[in-house]
Every structure is written in structure tokens, then in C-alpha cells.
Amino acid sequence: MAIFIRKFLYKYAKCLGVTVLTTFFIQIIISIILFPTVNDNLLKKFGDTSLGKLELNDVSARKIINGNGDDEDIPSKSQSDKVYPRLRTEELDFTPACAIESREAISAIHRAKTQNCKQEIVNKTCLIQNSNFYPVKLPNLCPSNGMTYGKYLGCYLDEKKFRILSSFYGNYATTNSPDLCIEICIQAGFPYAGVQYASECFCGDMTPPLSSKSIESSCDMKCPGDASKICGGYFAMNIYETGLTKFVPVTPKLSSHNKDSIRIVFLLTLNGRALRQVYRLLNVLYRSHHYFYIHVDKRQDYMHRKLSVLEQQFPNVRLARERFATIWGGASLLKMLLSSMKDFFALGWRWDYVINLSESDFPIKSLEDLEIFLSVNKGLNFVKSHGREVQRFIKKQGLDKTFIECETHMWRVGERKLPHGIVIDGGSDWIALSPEFVSYVVGKQDELLSGLDIIFQHTLLPAESFFHTVLRNSKFCNTYVDNNLHVTNWKRKLGCKCQYKHVVDWCGCSPNDFRTEDWPRIQNTLNRQLFFARKFEPVINQEVITRVEQLIGFNDHYRIQNVEAYWQNIYDTQDMPASTDDTLLSHAGSIIRHNAKTLLQEGCKMELGDIIEINLYKYADIYKGNLILYKASIHGADELLVETWYKPKHHLELNFQSQYVDLIKMFKVSSEYDQKEMTFRNFASILGPLSEPVLVYQFSPQMDKLNTNFTIIWLDPSGVIADVNTIHKEENNVTDFIKLNIKTPLLPGVWKVGLLEQNNALIALTKFLVTPLEYFAGREMSHQETSLIHSGSVSSYKKFSYLKDIDFLPGARDSLLLKELTESNARRIGQDLREWIDSLSIAFYDVLGSCVSTYSNNLKDKLVCGNYKFSECVSTEWSSLSPDPKGTIGKINTLTGRIDRI
Q1: Residue 492 C-beta-side C-alpha neighbours within 13 Å
Q2: Residue of 10, 360, 457, 615 with fewest CB within 10 Å of its CB?
Q3: Which pLDDT tens digit goes with each residue over 373-413?
């Protein structure tokens, strides 16, 4: 410390008075003595003192330090004597094996819903606390070429502008030592490590020049983390070998005249309901000499059921028998990939590369171009590295945290130390791997693989780091190509909004969908070794996919029927029941009853049967409505399939007397708002008592120039204010969203949302419907269920008595009538309930038409019903039963080995 103070005073004496400096250093020394815990925690977490300016009694600062996004279990300043919150053991049906110390683990245990998950978190946390869980050190099997771990090279003089080791710098004021610095440099993959000025650690990949070597006395400062060791001096550095050689990724060959045959396993990892897009992807990729291994998320019954028939049609298509619930960032993602790779080895397939793709991927070069490229680069492994400092990457990815997956959630349970001796790498989970490397990874585990298996079973986003880290530390290190063959549409400001907090205890980022305005980004890949792009979603933008097909050589679009149409299933009667199905069926049942009543006025009597499917329909990337496919009979004749097309009405009222009315571009309520794509996924705004409504507003850019706040009022069907929000002028939020913050169930009926000026004058008013449920758990509602679900949660509202004299609030008499009506509605069941539902939905949805299909050949006899003439669904442009060659699987062309889609 004395040497440090002396040199500091000498350096700055010309600028500062001695008295000021002396006082300054006394304060520093006192703070270190009195508050070592806080300082150590900050340094351990961030590796420098950059957070020294944070006020620890500030809530946001404590969130940063604790790495948590909420206030749960974070001690306040007044609770400074409470280091850890108490585990509420009374909530457990088992006795914990140890006293849980981790604040994050305790929070996870309290938030977990099932006892099995709580116990898993407890058991693993106890093993970690007892140091019996993670490996301390793992071997690096990459050839070292004569480099030796910890070999001392001497004391070298450094220069401020020309650092001897310039690849990484870190300041570790309380923990630095040669061993620590060497391990940090090994994690980053550098062959040299150097300690300087006591607290500084440098890494580099260039051999230090002998001309800079100095006498040992130039390095005279003790290490703060190990007083028995020396950590350099003033611009003097003790340098050590890490045992690694300089890492240089392989540069692949571009092309060759001697093209070898190539066979690819396309490992498709699918989720969601975009079946027609999966078919479109298969149409483009399919060749008879390649293989297609398909894993469908365990929860996606519809997708799996529809794709299962492909195994009978195509001998080179296989669906995974072991299925996983692959949540974003979950350990299950890596388990799924490894399980799938083991499986297609067991199938006896002979292949040269495995490439994993999702339903959101699409090729941006012809498959023949990919085959040529891979054929001249056999044996190489294509992964994409993060391209940043490894220590920053570790923090960003949460690799120094333990995560446990259960209840389809990744629970963060505390800090951990990564094992010594290995390089940490990662970046993208989209890969192209050789059979030799995959065989090693899924084969008999050696010490490296068994250790990494434990690490990555409890790692967030493990598929983004596992294969990279194995490559860097195994005998395959010289096959590493820093290219995952993908271009990804990153828009960080939109994609990094913590949209996955409901499934992971972390804030992650996700790429955006390509739209037509992103086309230049795809064009810029033409001369690069990139063969796929992501993400594509036809429900967001289909035109860009058609453009990509044209780019890679497809010229049949002028002959494809419905090339601009897109249908996506949102309900199928064969699916396993889901909680959202009750709302969909209640809503759809009302729509087809409206249709039947309209037909009856035309002299056509229709008897309704079961609902088979519900699809959303878009044309030219514009939402056109939903389609309900159901069974019905006309005048008691044979059963038909009827498809009815309908769409929601708009319910926005503007007060043109307001000076702000011209600012309103959007003011709408629905659910399933996608922050990243800035759109509702619930296109038809089908809401039920258990839905989570979201208001999205968009103002014109002139909003930024105004000096005013706005008020949002949510009014429930009984005329009671349910919630109030404020849009603050300083937030500059031209487009944003607000969630209704009340408990479910929501009171069924017509809700109103008003936008008010500061003087409570109304600017805009929108309405949305919360549809009463006809069904609960798939069966008709009982008296008890209706009274519980349809009574809402009015008693839990906050009181907003200060809001008075607002135009759209009901008067005292109307309030009383509305209250009596909602109480009466909550008792409706059976036909009475259906009539209530129908009276509500008719004001929010328009029926646009119907078409028919049949199981027999005599359909033409059934097209006329009374005064109404049905169209035939197969020849009706909007019908989901009309031809869609791009979104269905065609037949194999035996000459080309491809699928013909015309």
C-alpha cells in the first residue's frame, strides 16, 4: 500500500494538493477496512471497480449488484443485518438436506409451484454448497505444442501505448495473483498471462519480446490475492505461459472442381403451429440422398401429429421418439440435440454433416451451393463464436451462475465457479458438425465430456456454448471454423426486452423476423459463406420468403395457386386440451351460431356439429380474419364440412374536439403482444376471463415535442374503474404497451379503455370484449363454475375515488343497473349463457361468408340451400381447404430426387 500511495502522489502532485490527496487516501483505506464485504462482492462480480459509484441504498443499484430483476428477497438498507432471507420450510412437504444460504435459491424455491421442483432445487443447492457438485479442474486435450501451464518467463517492462500483452485487461484489486490471471487467460484461450501493478491482469497471444525483459527487481509488488507471490510493478509485468497455443480458427476452402458426394442430416427442431411453413422449408431442402431428422417440442401435439405421416411417405425422414419441452434458454435444448444425434447414429445413417434448423430458418443459397461448399471441407466443424471478451461473454450469458430446469422454467439458484484448465467459448446454437466430432460428443464420456456434462446441464442457453467449448478443449480443436453458415436478423433495441422472463430467471435477446425492408441484409450475403438466414415467420411477413425462394432459383411462383395466402392453425379438435381452448371454443361457437341464424333468414336451416379447426388467414401479409371449420348438416341431410370466414370489428372512438386527437395512430387492446415484432399474436382479439389484456398505443412523432402527461383508465363491464396508468412525457414513448394489472378472472363483457388529457378530457376510447366461457376444461360450465369465473375480481381492484367528472364513466343510476346486470349474468348457464355470449360477440365480429365440403362425391347437390348458394371450399380463395402447393408436401420427382410442388 505504501508503494502504491507513493507512486500515485508522485504522478499527480503537480495537479492536486498534498492535503487533498492525503484525505482522499485516508477515506479509501477506512472504506476498505470497514466495508470489505461489499467491495469484494462487487469486484468478484464485475472484475473491476466500475460500479464504485453506485449508492447501495438505491433499489436499482441493489438489483444490479444482486443480478435480479425484481425486489424479491433483496435486503434493504434497514435490513443490513439480514444477510439471507429465511427459507419458509412450512411450505415444503420434505426436510431440506442443508440450510440453504443462496438468496437466489430461496427465491426460486418459493416461486416454484410443485414440491418435486422445490425438492430438486434444494437437493442440488445443497450439493453445490458442500462443494460436491461441479468439477474443480478439467483437462484440455488440444495439442499444446510445447507450451507449459504456469511456466514463468520472467519480468518484462511494459509500455502504456504498446502493451506486451494486449488481448485482454482486467483489474482485480483484492483477488489478483498469477494463478488467477493464468486461469482467466486460459478461459479466454490465450497462451500468455501477465500480472502488473499488483491488481492488473493481462492476456495475449503474441510471444513477449526478449528486448523487453528486465531484472526481477523491477517487479516488486505483492499480489492482493496471494501475498507470497509478486504481481509485477510500475509498468512491469511478470509473464507466464498458460499451456495453450495461439488459437487460429480454420479458414474453409471456397470451392473445388473435384466435388465429392455429400450427405447431410438436417436436424429440424420444431415448435409452434406454423405447419405450412415447415412444409415449405421441406419442399426447398428435400433431396432423396439427404436425411431429415425431426424433433417436435413435447407440448406441440398438432405439429407432431401432422408430421408423423411423413415417415410413411419418405424413407429418409424420421421423427424423434424421445421428445423434450424445449423452452427458450433451457438445458432441455442441449439434451434434445444430443439425444437426436445419438438416435440417428443408431439408425445407421451414413452422413457427412449434421445441420440443425428450426421452422424459422430458410436457405438463402441453393442446396447445390451448400453441397459444393461442404464437400470440399469435410471434417471441419462450423460454429459461430461470440466475438467479444470472454469474461464479458461469461457475465452476459450467465455462465458463472447455476440454473436448474424444472416446471419448464430455468431457475437461477446462485453463483458458481467454472472449472479451471479449459477454454470457455460460445456464441450461436446453430451449427454444422462432422460425424467424427459428433461421434466423440455422444460416445463414451471421457473426463472432459463428463465434467462438461455436469456444467451444461445447469447452464442457461447451453446449446450456445457446449459444442464450442468441447471443440476448443478436445483433439478436434484444429477443426474449428468460426462460421455457423447463418445470417441472423439482429435488432438489439427490439430483441432485448426480457421477453422470456416467464420461462427463465434472466434477460435474454432474440433476433427479429426478416421483413421486406430487411432485404438488403440478405443481398449482402451473396458473396459470403452464408447459406441460411433466420428468423422468418410467414405470419409476420411472407413476401420476403417468396423473394428468398426466387433468389435461390425457384421460378414457379407465377404458377402457384394462393402464393400470397397464408393460413396458420390456432385450434384443432384432436389436440390435447389446453386452457386457451375454452375461450376459443366459446368464441367460435358463437360465431357459427350467428352464421346459422343468418342462413336461416335465407331459408337455409343448418344444424351445427363439432368444431374441427380454427385457422387465421392472411393475404399479401395483411390479416383478413379467422376461419372456423366445423361439421353441420343442411335440412337434415348428410353431414357436411362447413368453413365460415369472419373478422373482428374496429372499436376506436376519437374526440375530434381534443387538440391531441391527431397524435393517435393506434390505441388497441388484445393479448399475446410481441414486443420484439411490435404486433399482437392474438390477431382476432379473442379474450376470455383468464386472458391478460394488453393496450398498445402509438403516437405520431410530434408527441415528443409536447409537455404533457396522459392518463389511461380501464373501465370494466360493471362501470367500475379497474386500473389507471399514466403516460409520462419524459419517457418519449411514441409506441409502447401497458398491461392490465389486476387479478384474473376478468369480468366478462364489454370493457372500455380511455385516453385522457391532464384535465381529464377524453381524447380516445377503445372497447374490447372479454367473452364469457361456455366451456370449462372442455365441458359445459356448471352453476358453481360460472359463479366463480364470471363474477370477476372486482373486490381486488384498487380504489380510484379521486377520478370524477369523466365523460365515459357511468352515473350513479347507471352504475347500479350495471352492477345488478353483471351479478345476474354471472348466474347464466346453458342456453341462457349462450344467448348472452351471442349478444356480445355480434357487436365485435362480422361474418363474411361460408363454403362447404363433403366426405362424398355428391357435393354439387348441396351447394344450394334455400335462397343461399354455398361456394365449394376447394375452389374458394380464402378457404383453408383451397390448394396451397407451397405449404403442402408434394410428390418426389424420381429423376431429380426433389419434391415437386406444382
Answers
A1: 0
A2: 10
A3: 999 999 999 999 998 899 999 999 999 999 999 999 999 99
Quote the CA–CA distance of 274 and 78 in Å, as a whole number.
Answer: 52
The SS3 call for residue 457 is helix
Confidence check: pLDDT of 74 > 50: no
Kindly state the DSSP code that residue 290 receives in the 8-state scheme.
S
Cell readout for 257 is 472442381
Q: Tell me the sheet residues that pair with 642.
A: 630, 852
Residue 587's Cβ-count burial label (10 Å; 0-12, 13-18, 19+) is buried
pLDDT digits (tens, 9 = 90+) for 818-871: 999 999 999 999 999 999 999 999 999 999 999 999 766 666 667 888 899 999
What are 686-709's pLDDT values in tens digits? 999 999 999 999 998 877 667 788
In the chain, where the domains are located? 1-34, 152-241, 264-385+425-551, 565-648+844-875, 652-841
Question: Which neighbouring-strand residues pair with 699?
Answer: 664
113 three-class SS: coil
| Encoded amino acid at 157, one letter | L
Name the CATH topology of 652-841: Immunoglobulin-like (2.60.40)
In this structure, the strands spanning 721-727 and 845-853 are unpaired
Give burial (CB, 10 Å; 0-12/13-18/19+) of 400: middle
Can you spell out the DSSP letters for 697-753? Answer: EEE-GGGGG----EEEEEE-TTS-EEEEEEE-GGG--SEEEEE--SPSSPPPEEEEE
Write the class of the CATH domain 264-385+425-551.
alpha beta
Express each pLDDT in 178-187 by its tens digit.
999 999 999 9
